[in-house]
Amino acid sequence: xxxxLTTLNSKFIHSNLAIRYLSxxxxxxxxxxxxxxxxxxxxxxxxxxxxxSNPDIIxxxxxxxxxxxxxxxxxxxxxxxxxxxTVLGGPEVSFDGEELMRDNPYIDFIIYGEGExxxxxxxxxxxxxxxxxxxxxxxxxxxxxxxxxxxDRKLIENxxxxxxxxxxxxxxxxxxxxxxxxxRGCPFNxxxxxxxxxxxxRYFDIERVKKDLICLIExxxxxxxxxxxxxxxxxxxxxxxxxxxMEKDPKNINFHFEVTAHLLDEDMLKxxxxxxxxxxxxxxxxxxxxxxxxxxxxxxxxxxxxxxxVKKIKSGKNIHQHLDLIAGLPYEDYNTFKDSFNDVYALxxxxxxxxxxxxxxxxxxxADRDKYGYKYIDEPPYEVLENNFISYGDMIRLKGIEEMVExxxxxxxxxxxxxxxxxxxxxEPFEFYxxxxxxxxxxxxxKVAHSRNNLYSILKDFIEYKNYEHGLxxxxxxxxxxxxxxxxxxxxxxxxxxxxxxxxxxxxxxLKDERILSDYLPEYRDMPxxxxxxxxxxxxxxIDILKLIEGGYRAEEYGRRYILFKHRxxxxxxxxxxxxxxxxxxxx
Length: 588
Hints:
By secondary structure, this protein is α/β, with parallel strands linked by helices. It has 22 helices and 20 strands. Strand 19 and strand 20 form a beta hairpin. The longest helix has 18 residues. The protein is globular, with a radius of gyration of 28 Å.
């Protein structure tokens, strides 16, 4: 008998942890073919690949992004291969499995909840040709015309029973994102999250985790994304893992953790200062700064403490921080969300993620949907349309603002231009993004894709449309942002500020000057100029742009300057800008 475990990932670069756990957990009973697809692949192609492999049993790992496609695949497979046994598992089928099986007769079994033990017992029954599955906890099955849900399965107390899926992986995950867990469960009970349905936190043995991380580092994965709901729930455990990673000093890889900021104490903050630039990436859920909202969803948030922690980490310039907000939570209207946005934006995280509430199956907030007047699409991803506090129209407006934040803030390519505009012409950041989103939709820019260069041009058009004061300063900042983030930039014509102020000295001559090499580029002193020119740029500006930035973006004009840009491949720090005006003027 042949068995396959499969799933549809959201992107090719991703990998699935669940099916590898299951495969390892039954390896002594039956070999499993593990096969991954993506939701972007054609359904006919996926079905054909599965059919050609000719499995007798096929198990699907299901999530909000792939349930619809998974059901279509199961339907087709049952039509062309009626005797195939279809098994579904995962969070998307764990809370309404009986109803799902009634509506979809091509599903034979559903494993709900934590699946390893249930799957093992299920496969044992298959191998022994036992037809009575009623004694397997955690399983939903068909019995003639009835759907039977067996009793709940107890959680695995000793997680180390589960074989590691990341030993002897070779280059299977090279340059891919690998999902990894060092613990299961969460100490908190946020009502919008599925983790609230499982009490307590269980940990894998620390030595096992270290062995896994060595395998992943040697396998040259691009990112290890820890799926622990609160990675730093156990301070000592978390620090030992991060310290181990720092000791290994891996190249071209980063480690993503979901952390709770107010649990990061001074000892841990001091420890984090040692981390190599870009090695760690933190995702910090704020969700809202409205007290009524926080209380309603059962969060524990000390925003004052969170702010101090985020600022402290940011000052180290070595850890990329993502801060999350969720629109559509109870008691959060358009104006209070605006306040939450401004509160979080003031921290200047590397990425500000604006999410929209999804009423996930099994979440407490979904059970309370009538209490708050939720209207939502009852199909994956179950996104909220409106509730008693915020209208659908306002949610649409927030989606427009989210698009502007994603395009113009989150990659950092427009940092100084945006800062100057917000500081000098808006009472608060939200108003700027609101203004930009209205302009964006008026021009129908939301209907087509845009290159990064085009985003600069659109921002320049918006600036001209708004007719801000100090246009010369803004245009110089836009030029500065472009050069800062592009090696050997060919400046778009639209970003040229004043042709008469172009660099009047050949850059080769500037880079050969002993003062430049000794004072600004000592590490490149012995490098031929023709190679050095690929790493640096020299540009003229009509204002003292570095003084403007250091002075908090107050609108003052300071006179012409020459800036040397030293580009690098840093994850956090992409470039160093240095004022070489005195030397260049002497050369001219």
